[in-house]
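Blackboard transcription, Thursday session:
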Amino acid sequence: MRAEDGAELVQSRPIARVVGGRAEVCEGGWGREEAVIRLDGSMFGPEALFGLEGFSHLEVVFFFDQVDSQEIDSGARPVPGRDDGALVGIFAQRSRRRPNRLGVSRCQITSVDGLDVHVSGLDAVAGTPVLDLKPYVREFGPRGEIRQPEWASALMHDYY
Amino acid sequence: MRAEDGAELVQSRPIARVVGGRAEVCEGGWGREEAVIRLDGSMFGPEALFGLEGFSHLEVVFFFDQVDSQEIDSGARPVPGRDDGALVGIFAQRSRRRPNRLGVSRCQITSVDGLDVHVSGLDAVAGTPVLDLKPYVREFGPRGEIRQPEWASALMHDYY
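(Written on the board underneath:)
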């Protein structure tokens, strides 16, 4: 697939949907949400999830389908909570209004049942198309000391 | 966009490419690799990266473009290193031969220079199309105790 200007495009087909959980996008308290990630039974059987219950956490790649393409930000905006003119670029924040509208989140696996993965703490609303599921493997986490600006920590205060 | 059977498809346009680093896919020692993630200058200006140097780590969503669509596994395979018939599903492993061929990795940010993010420890080869960049924010990491099967830890022994 190519765009009008010849750029190569990547096409993904949702492998699953979020079922249950929060119906509308609103910030905060995501840690208490329970939901199901249901595999598309026309493409996958239960064997695609074999062994997943051996992991405590799941990494979920999803599509922010409720963000309109007109809302996408590809530049910079003021740093949250500051009014000194400092700017933060779209790739230095995790706003959902981002090019390609891809989300990546970690959540806890409660149980696996057939095509259903029961999870808690997933910050995606009901109906969200899921593009990939990966087990969270400790060694794939960040290596070395983690450093982040104060505004990022402040923003996360009530998120989960 | 829709597939032939009517399923909704998600289209992404690479926002960047991996420049330098390892030229060929081979496992092990990724932690020592240095590379550049170069934003597509036809879509973005340097402001899209403003503030990124305040973070130590980057989360990179990329497309395994060297995996042929024929190679994709959507079922299960024997658990690595075991011959007792135990199976592990494609969504319980991080193999690149996965539906949608999406990779998600963490790496360290060395510096940001115009449209270039210099990184170390990225497990993606030169030329890899990058679909998203997100700053690694501690609070978005896994919450609670992390548990994973022994085979996953063993597999990671020489990876980074």
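Lecturer's comment: The longest helix of chain A spans residues 150-155.
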